[in-house]
Design brief:
The complex is a heterodimer of chains A (257) and B (411).
Chain A (H helix, E strand, L loop, with lengths): L3 E12 L2 E12 L3 E5 L6 H9 L4 E10 L2 E2 L5 H7 L1 E4 L6 E5 H8 L18 H13 L9 E2 L5 H14 L4 E5 L7 H17 L3 E5 L3 H7 L3 E6 L2 E6 L3 H18 L1
Parallel strand pairs in A: 3-10, 3-11, 6-9, 9-10
Antiparallel strand pairs in A: 1-2, 1-4, 4-5, 7-8, 11-12
Chain B lengths: L2 H11 L24 E2 L8 H8 L12 E6 L3 E6 L6 E5 H7 L17 H8 L5 E5 L9 E7 L5 E10 L4 E10 L6 E11 L4 E9 L4 E11 L4 E8 L5 E3 L3 E4 L5 E10 L4 E10 L5 E10 L4 E10 L4 E11 L5 E10 L4 E10 L3 H8 L5 H13 L8 H17 L3
Parallel strand pairs in B: 1-3, 2-6, 5-7, 6-8, 7-9, 8-10, 9-11, 10-12, 11-13, 11-14, 12-15, 13-16, 14-16, 15-17, 16-18, 17-19, 18-20, 19-21
Antiparallel strand pairs in B: 2-3, 4-5
Helix pairs in contact in B: 1-4, 5-6
The chains are: A alpha/beta (257), B alpha/beta (411).
């Protein structure tokens, strides 16, 4: 029996006074791949943002349990350091902070994490080559000297977010639409990267997506469907083609019968 | 009456003329130095303490990777030295240069008005020192030239007049640090700086200021850029001060001339900063930008001004004034202004004043930084001067200087 790494109990969440999640019970099994699907505005992103703890989302009832303990009282950075990695859909621009320096700061192997130390210097030479290899593999070497998220294209944002979260070596990675707005080449690159993480077998992947390609490429273990802030269906890979054919309305109406 | 006498007379008339901006200062409160100027033979003769102090404003006493140095301590000691014996590069104390070159008088109070206010007037009427740096036509000096003005005396006036001339087709990079001892009390620094960028020439001028809390500073500078000339100006002040007011002007008088002006203020304690600049696009196709960034902490009072005036066809100007307010007692006044005097000029501006964005903060926190570290990273990124066109050696020195200063402050 695989262990549960993260679960929500009866989780209700509001944003700007509107209830978005309504008593959700969901669990993510260690080192498995879970897909969260659902129509627009069903609460998928809110679930992810509530797990990392963004202040815009207020938990009004229920609990979030990570490795057996509630994380509701923990700040975002504490959750991150516990091993929860979240890739943003639309990350903000951080001017004056170069991408390659930033990667060093989030990398747990890097010893000098103070803001004022010079990065990518002698003390970091050991992994510079490795870092650049990784940049190359994800096709973001051209971003190394740019300010973080400064004018990154849609595909570059996805790849940079995945790369940052990867660099943190999290126990669970939550990816909010890692495949939206990507061309075929980028899609393949991201797919290969996620597949490699899965094959390594030491990271739990949670993927919010609308698209069949990446989910099939990854061979997801569990499929959850959210609708109107509630978990309405639990299934597996075999549901995805059916879902694609019928659409959410029809699919959910049929399974409800 | 000679031109020199005319300038003197104009200065005398402006002796009590209050400046347009900034706290008014009674210049007579400060002692004018009349001691004879001494020469510092070698930088090796500099005391350990002075070496440490000048290093904090991007001046390297070991002169690694510089083409030359100018150092002035109060009005007592002056050193002007060329490291790189390059034909056509001159670095001289201004008074020596004025004796050597008759024609240089025409450049004195040509870009800056001698009767602009009481500070320019005082500058002319009292004894002054400063540097003269020139690259002759076609001479490209890629290695930076460094200069430093240090104030040590109490109740004193440091009165500077600098002239830089980058003649046609030449290139110069100057890094200028101004500083005082932390113990210097009631001192006034006046600096008239006049820069001339010739046709197809390039000048980058990077200035780092680091003062103490009882020092007032009133620099008066102006640059004239000729056809296809490029002027890049960077200014950083990250220390407390009693007050500073500066409003450098860049006049693009030649076709397709360009000026990019960037300034960064990190305000702390009870300091008052009134900084910014004016860019006038006077010839067709002249273009440039003014970027002013300010961070206000403690009870700092910061005014950032950015003015662009478009006066000719196909001119382009962009203005950005961004400020971060990090404390309740501080204040930021961002005053961007655009003026179009020709229908075929494109001017734009954006201005933001606010606290650190929650979105940015939480983004960095999601990558494992605690709230303080995330805020510090955003602020250090905000004040970093990443300047296209600047030689990497200067960029490194500037980065290092900014880092050191933030390190020591409340960050």
């Amino acid at each position: 029996m695989t262990k549960t790494i993260l679960e929500t109990h009866n989780l209700s969440v509001e944003a700007q006074g509107l209830r978005i999640l309504d008593g959700i019970n969901i669990e993510f099994k260690e080192n498995q791949v879970t897909a969260i699907l659902g129509p627009n505005a069903s609460g998928k992103s809110t679930l992810a943002k509530s797990i990392i703890g963004l202040s815009e989302y207020e938990v009004t009832a229920g609990d979030i349990i990570f490795e057996g303990e509630s994380i509701l009282d923990k700040a975002i950075d504490e959750r991150a350091r516990l091993g929860i990695g979240y890739a943003f859909q639309k990350p903000p621009l951080i001017s004056g902070v170069r991408f390659q320096d930033f990667i060093c700061r989030v990398c747990p192997s890097y010893v000098n994490k103070d803001v004022d130390t010079t990065l990518m210097s002698e003390s970091c030479m050991l992994c510079t080559q490795e870092l650049y290899n990784d940049f190359d593999r994800l096709g973001i070497r051209n971003l190394a000297l740019r300010d973080l998220n400064d004018g990154f294209s849609g595909g570059e944002i996805k790849r940079s977010e995945i790369f940052q979260v990867l660099s943190m070596r999290p126990k669970i990675m939550i990816l909010d639409e890692p495949d939206s707005g990507l061309d075929y080449d980028s899609l393949k690159m991201v797919g290969r990267e996620l597949r490699a993480i899965k094959d390594r077998g030491d990271t739990t992947l949670v993927i919010i997506s609308h698209h069949r390609y990446i989910l099939e490429f990854l061979q997801v273990d569990t499929v959850y469907i959210l609708n109107k802030g509630q978990l309405v269906y639990t299934g597996d890979m075999s549901d995805i083609p059916v879902l694609e054919e019928k659409g959410y309305d029809k699919f959910l109406a049929e399974v409800a019968q | 009456m000679t031109t020199a006498e005319k300038k003197k007379r104009r200065a005398q008339r402006a002796r009590n003329k209050t400046a347009l901006y900034g706290l008014d200062i009674d210049v007579d409160r400060f002692a004018h130095d009349d001691s004879a100027v001494g020469t510092l033979e070698r930088l090796d003769d500099l005391s350990e303490m002075d070496r440490a102090i000048v290093s904090q404003v991007a001046f390297d006493p070991d002169q690694k990777a510089v083409a030359g140095s100018y150092l002035q301590i109060d009005h007592e000691l002056i050193l002007a030295e060329m490291m790189l014996q390059k034909e056509g590069l001159e670095i001289l104390p201004i008074n020596e240069a004025l004796m050597k070159h008759d024609w240089l008088n025409d450049y004195l109070w040509n870009a800056v008005l001698v009767d602009a206010d009481k500070y320019t007037a005082t500058s002319e009427l009292e004894r002054y020192d400063g540097y003269f740096i020139r690259a002759k036509p076609g001479v490209k000096v890629k290695t930076p030239i460094q200069s430093c003005m240090l104030m040590r005396k109490n109740r004193s006036l440091q009165n500077i007049h600098n002239i830089i001339i980058a003649e046609e087709g030449s290139e110069l990079h100057v890094v200028n640090g101004c500083t005082s001892l932390s113990t210097t009390q009631n001192a006034l620094h006046l600096g008239a700086s006049e820069f001339y960028v010739g046709k197809n020439a390039k000048l980058s001028f990077t200035m780092v200021h680091r003062w103490s809390e009882a020092v007032d500073v009133r620099p008066r500078s102006a640059t004239i850029v000729s056809e296809n000339g490029i002027y890049i100006e960077n200014y950083a002040i990250l220390s407390p001060i009693h007050s500073i007011q500066s409003y450098p002007q860049s006049r693009l008088t030649g076709m397709n001339a360009k000026a990019d002006l960037t300034s960064v203020v990190y305000g702390s304690k009870d300091s008052r900063y009134d900084v910014g600049g004016l860019l006038t696009l006077e010839a067709p196709d002249a273009n440039g930008f003014v970027v002013a960034r300010a961070v206000a902490t403690d009870r700092a009072d910061i005014t950032t001004r950015g003015d662009i005036i478009g006066m000719a066809p196909r001119t382009k100007g962009r203005l950005e004034c961004d400020s971060l307010l990090l404390s309740d007692g501080s204040k930021v006044d961002a005053i961007p202004r655009l003026e179009a005097l020709h229908r075929d000029c494109v001017l734009s501006h954006e201005a933001t004043v606010g606290k650190i964005g929650n979105e940015q903060l939480e983004y960095l926190m999601s990558r494992g930084f605690n709230e303080d570290k995330a805020a510090a990273l955003i602020v250090s990124g905000f004040v970093s001067l990443d300047i296209p066109g600047l030689p990497p050696t200067i960029q490194r020195v500037v980065d290092e200087t900014i880092r050191m200063t933030l390190d020591e402050g409340s960050m």
